[in-house]
Specification:
about 280 residues, mainly alpha, MetI-like fold, 2 strands, about 70% helix
């Protein structure tokens, strides 16, 4: 398979297909879902049938419809969280690497101290104090994800900052933002793209974990982690209701990883580096 003149491996093609299906499901959820997100249409944990292809959940809602709406919630929030964490982490990491000195020392020590705190416990405390609103959830997970992005960005930028073309830009009097945007970022894209995929998967799993604990996306909105929690007892009755959203989480994270791995350049660096 080829895309824009570049050969795409089979694993990357499979990843693209999986991610594309999920994106279409998320975007068209209101049109594809046979029932409403919170509409109760039958008896509790009814088995799959012609009317309800994947059966019903713990309060009689259509599982297929909930999975589609859950895709919209989970994917949109994971993308938003990843973008915010990268905005924080990349900006801080590049600034620390290029500026050096006390700026690098202060930012690095702060990040090291922050990473020493257990992520799940920290998020549980924050959400318990400030509530489980979508805003608090997004900001909390984004902040927890940004230190990892900072460390990678700083490590990559340290090598690039030592290049001659970066030194020439400094001698020309270019400001920090220009050097970060025009000199460092284009040459740091391959590892950052891979990290974005990992952070997206981290966000998906973290949202699911918090929802499973009851502190994530709140009812009646659907998300895959909450669906696993709601239908956990169905296993005792031989129902597959809790396994379906768990499978949805697994296939999305696998698809993203396959796609990202297939798009990374072999040389590990972007072409056309330097001014």
């Amino acid at each position: 398979m080829e895309l824009s003149g570049r050969k795409i491996s089979l694993s990357a093609a499979i990843g693209i297909m999986i991610v594309s299906i999920n994106i279409v499901a998320a975007l068209l959820a209101p049109l594809l879902a046979p029932h409403g997100e919170a509409e109760m249409v039958g008896s509790i944990w009814a088995p799959p049938s012609d009317a309800f292809w994947l059966g019903l959940d713990n309060v009689g809602r259509d599982i297929l419809s909930r999975l589609l709406f859950g895709a919209r919630t989970t994917i949109s929030l994971a993308v938003l969280i990843s973008v915010i964490s990268f905005a924080i982490g990349v900006t801080g990491g590049f600034a620390a690497a290029i500026t050096g000195g006390w700026v690098d020392a202060v930012l690095s020590r702060f990040v090291d101290a922050f990473m020493a705190m257990p992520s799940l416990i920290f998020s549980l405390v924050v959400l318990s104090v400030f509530g489980s609103s979508t805003f608090v959830l997004v900001v909390t997970i984004a902040i927890l994800s940004s230190p990892g992005v900072f460390r990678l960005s700083r490590a990559v930028a340290l090598d690039i900052a030592a290049m001659d073309y970066v030194e020439v830009a400094r001698l020309r009097g270019e400001h920090l933002g220009w050097i970060m945007r025009r000199e460092v970022l284009p040459n740091a894209l391959p590892p950052l793209i891979a990290e974005f995929g990992l952070r997206f998967c981290f966000a998906v799993l973290f949202i699911a974990a918090l929802s499973f604990l009851g502190l994530g996306i709140q009812p009646p909105y659907a998300d895959w982690g909450g669906m696993v929690r709601d239908n956990a007892q169905a296993v005792n009755f031989g129902s597959l209701a809790p396994l379906l959203p768990a499978l949805a989480i697994a296939q999305l994270t696998i698809g993203v990883n396959l796609m990202i791995d297939g798009f990374l350049p072999e040389n590990g660096r972007a072409e056309g580096e330097g001014p």
